[in-house]
Amino acid sequence: MIEFLNVHKRFDVPVLAGVDLAIERGETVAVVGHSGTGKSVLLKTTLGLIKPDVGAVRIDGESVFAAGRRGLERIRRRIGYVFQNAALFDSMSVWENVVQGLPEDELKRLGRREATQRVAGALEHVNLDPKAILSKLPAELSGGMRKRVGLARAIVSRPEVLLYDEPVTGLDPVNATVVHRLIARLAEELGITSLIVTHGIEGVLPIVDRVAMLDRGGIRFDDTPGAFRRSLDPLVRAFLDRDVPTETLQIAEAV
Amino acid sequence: MLRTVGRGAEGTLRHAGGMALLLGRIASALATGRVPLRALVDQIYAMGVQSLPIVLVTASLAGVVTSQQGGYQFTGSVPLYVLGSVVVSSIVLELGPVLTAVVLIGRVGARITAELGTMQVSEQIDALYALGRDPVRVLAAPRVLAGVIVVPILVAIADAMGIFAGMFAASATLGLGSDNFLYGARMYWHSWDLFYSLAKGVAFGFVIPLIAVHMGLSARGGAEGVGRATTSAVVFMIMAVLFLDALFPPLLLN
Q1: What residues of chain B score a pLDDT lower than 50?
Q2: Could you tell me if the ipTM is greater than 0.90?
Q3: How does the average pLDDT of chain A come out, rounded?
Q4: What is the C-alpha separation between A122 and A113, in angstroms, rounded?
Q5: Do A89 and B131 touch (CB under 8 A)?
Q6: B205 in a domain, yes or no?
Q7: Residue B104 covered by a domain
Q8: Angle between helix B191-217 and B222-252 (nearest 10)
Q9: Distance between CA atoms of residues B17 and A252, nearest Å
Q10: Domain, as residue range, for B162
């Protein structure tokens, strides 16, 4: 279970001002909101990458910021993080990038052959052909492929929690739908708790259990996708202004 | 004006504090022996082997210029063989280490800042943390350790090359044979000078990658931020090298 308790964070201006949110084990939750509402900041507090000024973040009752270095390492091992622009290491091949997702002690224990099998398995999970791309550099991949390699890197260690920071930003509608379906499949097949941060709601509603909307530093809405669709809140309505065209869904199905 | 001075002082202190913290974490990584060997070898190759041609060219030119200008000054007043001592002392005490450092600031320091700065603004550093890899251990420590190992070696090579080029230039343009050149060089040679030269190499080899790494990891704000960090890093590295250079004579030549 992930809990955000009264989380405050200020940079030049207040970004988070008392966020309270709980995500149950196995749940898939989308956090939506306009750009600059602190969605990515909230996500990064989960891994201890950004420290809140006030408040606490807990993973299964363990406070991220009171855990110490070892505790934080232990928490991070349980969490996979998919970065907005994949954040692949430019100078490393796809194999090297994905294998970095394995903890160092596990990597030593597995050896190169088994590690390669794990990497190949993770790439197949995200619909990529390992033989075709293992030796490629990130610069040789399309945006959609880079996102999927980032996803493979996040799941190769078989985490209990996956955090997605704008997983479809910059992707065309077809690739965006492919990635959304992957997220749903991973949550279902691996029983992963998923927290998806996005500023676009299209495509996310069908794959999540709950939607939370961040606005002015706090949670403005927190309910099911059905309730989100029915909401009369003007800000919620603004997010529902368009849907994914059926043709896009059909093409994504083929991909 | 006071505000500008205050802001400048605050920025300098912030960087100094940041570098002290970075240094502590690098020392911890080195003490626990957790520096990845492959990354260290890669950095030694990039800093050492790949910098060698430009270090050799720079040292050769420094040797030639010192020899020729010395010869011009000595004509008719001082025995020409003294030029050997002037060239050797100039190269070993000053030009070898400092010019090597300046070359490395441009070739290695700027590259490290730009590389780590790009990793910072594209969230690759955050990705390392998220994957349980400490960027200081896997990125900073190998670079600083490689600098400390490689730069004294480059300085020694630059010293030898500068002296050889100076001797060749003296022979070709001033008619000072290598025997006379070496006779003059031996007359005023102190073995301590070589230690002094290599000690400068160690100091520069430590401070250049340390500043470069710190500035890279401090970069913010996209491509423009990386550019700003790289420019600032080059300025800081040059100032640090010249400041250290000025500290050496009172500390080690008295």
Answers
A1: none
A2: no
A3: 88
A4: 14
A5: no
A6: yes
A7: yes
A8: 160
A9: 52
A10: 36-252
Torsion sign across C-alpha atoms B39, B55, B197, B192? positive
Indicate the number of domains in chain B. Answer: 1
User: Hunting for tokens 């600031």 — which residue is that?
Assistant: B105
The pLDDT tens digits of the residues spanning A120-162 come to 999 998 889 999 999 999 999 998 899 899 999 999 998 999 9
Three-class DSSP labels, B51-113:
CHHHHHHHHHHHHHHHHHHHHHHHCCCCCCCHHHHHHHHHHHHHHHHHHHHHHHHHHHHHHHH
Question: Are A29 and A195 spatial neighbours (Cβ–Cβ below 8 Å)?
Answer: yes
Identify which of A160, A201, A15, A199 has the alpha carbon closest to the alpha carbon of residue A75.
A160
Task: Compute the radius of gyration of chain A from its Cα atoms.
Answer: 18
Shortest Cα distance from B40 to chain A (angstroms)?
15
Most A CBs within 10 A among B125, B131, B137, hence the mutation to make, goes to B131
Q: Is B28 on the interface with A (CB under 8 A)?
A: no
* Residue B123 with chain A: CB contacts under 8 Å: 83-85, 87
pTM: 0.85
- Residue B5 sits at the chain A interface (C-beta within 8 Å): no
Q: Does B99 fall in a domain?
A: yes
Is residue B147 in some structural domain? yes
Q: Which of residues 117-156 of B touch A (CB under 8 A)?
A: 118-119, 122-124, 126-133
Lowest mean pLDDT among A202-206, A227-231, B41-45, B95-99: A202-206
Cβ A76–B124 below 8 Å, yes or no?
Answer: no
Task: Report the residue of chain B nearest A163, measured CA to CA.
Answer: B130
How far apart, in whole angstroms, are the C-alpha atoms of residue B37 and residue B40? 5
Q: What is the dihedral of CA A170, A171, A172, A174, to 10 degrees?
A: -160
**From CA A170, how far away is CA A193, in angstroms rounded?**
24
- Answer yes or no: are the C-beta atoms of B101 and B203 closer than 8 Å: no
Amino acid identity of residue B209, one-letter, is: P
- Which is it for the CA torsion B68, B70, B73, B75, positive or negative? negative
CA separation (Å) from B175 to B60, B71, B179?
Answer: 18, 10, 11
CB B141 within 8 A of CB B214: no
Q: Which residue among B118, B124, B126 sits closest to A49, beta carbon to beta carbon?
A: B126
